[in-house]
């Protein structure tokens, strides 16, 4: 679909870029046709059951009730490898971050019938679970508070019944949370709490533990729901206040989002770290590498995964 695309064809217009800087998000925009996405996912959901080349295979199996097993499957799955490099996405990302861009993480976000919504939150260094920064911007290139540019693609219907994303426009300008405080994991919290009359949690954590002002309550009157069809995506700063609604069970279909996370090549990824500790588990970064999706990399502080033609899409060896 994008093989014959001209360079810059999918870039943000000056007006779109201005709106992005104002609101902290852009979209939804189309990456795949609806039926195309449905067909892809019918095939890929089966392919992803094969974890023989997943870089966190052994650790994920030992981590118990953890979301880490959903991380970085673009490093072993061909479709996801192509997806993180899709120019319909990367040209928009480069318009914000500059020409030289890394994809440093991907995550699946499933929501099944009856699942709670996700707490309102912001992320800057992604130290919120372990207390250790996972990304660090160069001091002279800090944009807002740092953070990452996330592109969240709907692989299935994402609406107010299935648990779509919600944003508070403009809230990326000020961090309301201190990620150095560190949250405390308790799997018994999952699907067990109601906040503001809405079932909401954070994968076994309580994000309110990080609040700078203990009395802070997000102004949900300003929230907008991001209703998305399969194949649509939305781009937003991780420092934007965002959440999701619960899946109310009125349909049997799972809501599935897939998040690509991007930073400039100058950003340090997992600095001084050899493992990720989250959600009650831990995984080794021995086989991890960031993927250069745009421009060139003139730095040597990050491990870079390169495309291969054998075994799995990317390798760091």
Would you mind describing this structure in some detail?
The chain has helices at residues 14-23, 34-47, 57-62, 78-84, 87-97, and strands at residues 25-30, 101-111, 117-121, 135-136, 149-154, 165-167, 194-195, 198-201, 224-226, 232-237, 242-244, 255-264, 268-269, 275-278, 281-284, 291-294, 306-307, 314-315. It contains five helices and 18 strands. β7 and β8 (198-201) form a beta hairpin. A six-stranded antiparallel β-sheet has the order 1-10-5-12-2-16. A six-stranded mixed β-sheet has the order 7-8-3-11-6-9, with no helix packed on it.
Q: What's the shape?
A: globular
Low-confidence stretches: none
Order of SSEs: HEHHHHEEEEEEEEEEEEEEEEE
Strand order of the largest sheet: 1-10-5-12-2-16
Our count of helices gives 5
- CATH architectural group: Sandwich
**Domains, number:** 1
Structural class: alpha+beta
CATH top level?
Mainly Beta
Oligomer: single chain
Radius of gyration: 18 Å
How many β strands by DSSP?
18
Largest sheet: 6 strands, antiparallel
> Roughly what is the average pLDDT, rounded to an integer?
91
**Helical content band:** 10-25%
């Amino acid at each position: 679909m994008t093989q014959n695309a001209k360079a810059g064809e999918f870039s943000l217009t000056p007006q779109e870029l201005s709106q992005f800087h104002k609101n902290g998000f852009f979209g939804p925009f189309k990456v795949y046709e609806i039926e195309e996405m449905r067909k892809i996912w019918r095939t890929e959901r089966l392919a992803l059951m094969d974890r023989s080349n997943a870089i966190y295979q052994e650790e994920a199996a030992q981590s118990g009730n953890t979301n880490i097993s959903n991380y970085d499957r673009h490093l072993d799955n061909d479709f996801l490898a192509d997806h993180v490099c899709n120019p319909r996405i990367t040209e928009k990302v480069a318009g914000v971050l500059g020409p030289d861009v890394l994809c440093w993480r991907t995550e699946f976000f499933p929501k099944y019938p009856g699942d709670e919504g996700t707490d309102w939150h912001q992320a800057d260094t992604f130290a919120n679970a372990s207390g250790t920064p996972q990304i660090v911007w160069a001091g002279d290139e800090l944009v807002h508070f740092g953070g990452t540019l996330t592109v969240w693609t709907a692989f299935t219907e994402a609406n107010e019944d299935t648990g779509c994303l919600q944003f508070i426009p403009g809230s990326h300008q000020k961090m309301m949370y201190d990620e150095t405080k560190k949250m405390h994991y308790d799997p018994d919290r999952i699907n067990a709490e109601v906040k503001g009359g809405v079932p909401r949690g954070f994968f076994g954590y309580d994000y309110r533990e990080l609040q700078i002002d203990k009395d802070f309550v997000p102004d949900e009157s300003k929230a907008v729901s991001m209703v998305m069809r399969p194949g649509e995506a939305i781009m937003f700063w991780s420092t934007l206040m965002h959440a999701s609604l619960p899946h109310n069970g009125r349909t049997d279909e799972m809501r599935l989002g897939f998040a690509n996370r991007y930073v400039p090549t100058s950003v340090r990824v997992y600095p001084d770290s050899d493992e990720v500790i989250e959600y009650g588990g831990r995984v080794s970064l021995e086989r991890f590498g960031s993927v250069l999706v745009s421009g060139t990399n003139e730095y040597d502080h990050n491990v870079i995964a390169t495309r291969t033609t054998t075994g799995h899409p990317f390798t760091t060896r």
